[in-house]
Write the structure tokens for this entry.
Amino acid sequence: MRVNFTVNGRPQQADDVWEGESLLYVLRERLGLPGSKNACEQGECGSCTVRLDGVPVCSCLVAAGQAEGREVVTVEGLADLARQRSDGLSACGTPPGEAGHAQTRDTCSQSGESGELAPIQRAFIDAGAVQCGFCTPGLLVAADDMLERNPNPTDADIREALSGNLCRCTGYEKIMDAVRLAAARQSEGV
Amino acid sequence: MPNGAPTKITQASGTKGGIGESMLRPDGTLKVTGEFAYGSDMWHEDMLWGQILRSPVAHAEIVSIDTGEALAVPGVYAVMTYDDLPTEVKNYGLEIQDTPVLAHGKVRHHGEPVAMVAADHPETARRAAAKIKVEYRDLPVITDEASALAPDAILVHENRTDDHAAHVPHPNIVHRQPIVRGDVAEARRRADVIVEGEYVFGMQDQAFLGPESGLAVPAEDGGVDLYVATQWLHADLRQIAPVLGLPEDKVRLTLAGVGGAFGGREDLSMQIHACLLALRTGKPVKIVYNRFESFFGHVHRHPAKLYYEHGATKDGKLTHVKGRIVLDGGAYASSSPAVVGNAASLGVGPYDVDDVEIEAIGLYTNNPPCGAMRGFGAVQACFAYEAQMDKVAGELGMDPVEFRRRNAMSQGSVMPTGQIVDSPAPVAELLRRVKALPMPPERQWESSEGADVRQLPGGLSNTTHGEGVVRGVGYAVGIKNVGFSEGFDDYSTAKVRMEVVAGEPVASVHTAMAEVGQGGVTVHAQIARTELGVAQVTIHPADTQVGSAGSTSASRQTYVTGGAVKNACELVREKVLEMGRRRFGSYHPAWATAELLLEGGKVVTDGGEVLADLVDVLGDEAVEVEQEWRHRPTEPFDLRTGQGNGHVQYSFAAHRAVVEVDTELGLVKVVELACAQDVGKALNPLSVLGQIQGGTTQGLGIAVMEEIVVDPRTAKVKNPSFTDYLIPTILDTPTIPVDVLELADEHAPYGLRGVGEAPTLSSTPAVLAAIRDATGLELNRTPVRPEHLAGA
């Protein structure tokens, strides 16, 4: 089947999708967006977290067909999303109708090579919240979503919001530091 | 070159960026943008997907295998079984080559690889693998010491010829290591109290998040290029090449991104399978385990039964320790012999005891194979000896920390192996420090709006608002060896190059060290900056084009590969200074007379006088050195007495756990888990904290939730998923305050002490001690489950 949906602000089209394929598989293997990770493929670890019409979901549990006509944001799109939030503009510069074919890997919002990072990405690096990094994309999407809804979270709020994302390396302390840091920078307008 | 093949990363630093600074990871940006390619992200034009068919039973003869139906599935390119292996070498193994690449005639554990498929879609490969018909004839299962050593026990491995076969008392024992020192019978008579205990340690999984994965690409020269997530490229190579029938120079390994390891990637997983399928089909083959398969695809931490007797005098001095440690190694040896050596030699803990009898054995059974996991044999022992220390203190009516302090080992102490501890061993100081940290407030769940259930046992299940909740506090301390022990040639290799690039001096570091998340790449760049005085350092991808770095295990990489990088940098520096003397020596006498350093891109005297810019010294020449580096050698332990200078270095951590237990429901909330650890020298303080907090949390996991449950009747794994095998979430993990002590070990580079494992030891017994303190229960097994506590 063919699936049409928007990924990180760009219309995408995936062809020859088998009905059993997950959104995660299509993102990773058909659209060249391997940032979302495949740690459990059972919806338990949160490594594949993306936003589907704004809502964080485990993309391993979403059938690709369910994404038809909807908007997906992955870790590769966090920097653009943050930019849009801060200036209310589409940073990609390509009007939706002129987007390229799904198979192209070279699109501005997907490469992650823009040099700019979303505040939550910067905070994860600065706080030392990244070790092996496999949980990081999912945590970033989840944390970014939480800070959008709750700019001044308590520690208990952060823990509750991120409780669906497993990390095996850090013991979560530096992840807590990173989210606190991003929230503080956000409130200071840094 | 496949998509995702690693490339060099150059990191510049605005500060000196040397050792001792909390430099940020050079791969951090790639990891937060999603660009960092892990093994499972590798992609190649025209690639196939490999799938392994695994045994559904633990112990059985294979009567027949029929691959016909699988081969007929459209999209399938190859199906391979034991009969398709190309050479006479059909087994592999880290210490004993007892592990079949594909089962031959018999399977020995649930999940053993039996056949494999390559197809053009992963689901096609899975479905085809399911169409392979294998007929099994069940054999009785060996599941514990009693069944392994019974008079009529089936041998898990017949006709053993390995190095340990001659000295073990039974062929179902992989290795046995006694440690005998002093006269326990005599010491026993001096004891005022004698305390016995039996302890059970559950099977823990490394549960790294990035599943086993890699991509094998057949090469035009008949060889193969393998991109793989592993812990030791050269050990993989040594095991892979003979099975493929290729010389080692035709099997080229490159480290793909590694999503955590913790010991679980020391053994091979999909490496040989992917290479065989690639060579058979002539196409690149990628294999990625899903989580279910991952639980079968790597070894676990040995479950253990431990029997201890401790004696002490009334004034709180240990008289003797007797211990028997039975580790279940499962169906294949993996690193069981070394785990046995560790459990035995570290089995008394960080205490001065003159009279010791310890025996550790590792069993062959039909349970899942067990091998390396962070802490490596020392973890199981620490859980038991620390429970014993509390028990003895209780018998003596003595404070448990005070009792430990009176017996704490220190620099100059003699281990039960006879080895003198010749660097700082601040055991009493670590306990003092961790005890001195401020306590979390009582009834910490109370807020202005009432009880915040998220801070209580049971959390958002809203099972209590504080009723029935009791606090407990527990302490523990442990001792871990750093580096490979028992006479192993534990070397590493570094290639360091210095040249001028775009008008700036740049150092590049090339090692085969597996970066698994620990931050070795960060530290290598820091060492290069410190030794060579440059701002820019390029880290070359790890591969087998440079000499072995040894394993990213045993808390050893900063010590050993760090040591190799430091050594290679020093040799480069000498050459650079030699060039400087040749070019500019005649202009300034200091070139000949002063101690010269490289700092800030310049050659300076130890008095700070600048003699030349490195750019001018180097010109268009490059200086390059590749050199092996070794730490002090170790010795094997005597097979009867366990005596010998077996370990390179010891590391120590202490924990204080504060828990709150809902005694009605048996639910535990760990409120805080404080740690004090001596790291010798923190090369990167931020990374050190990350290691200590991460290790502490894995210890918490095995204390209260993590366990691979194996059915004792069938030896089948019952919970191979993150739904049923629980690892700590951010809600389960408390704050982890850390007090880092830096007492230099003069034998180690920069005085450093390996960091990664020690915190995993004492975390678990501290949590158990705290739960015992809260409930008054004996609790002789870990993990503790609600049914062990409810109604207490």
Chain A touches chain B through 61 residues (CB under 8 Å). Residues 3-74 of chain A form a domain with the Ubiquitin-like (UB roll) fold (CATH 3.10.20.30). Residues 152 and 183 of chain A are 6 Å apart (CA to CA). Chain A is about 35% helix and 10% strand.
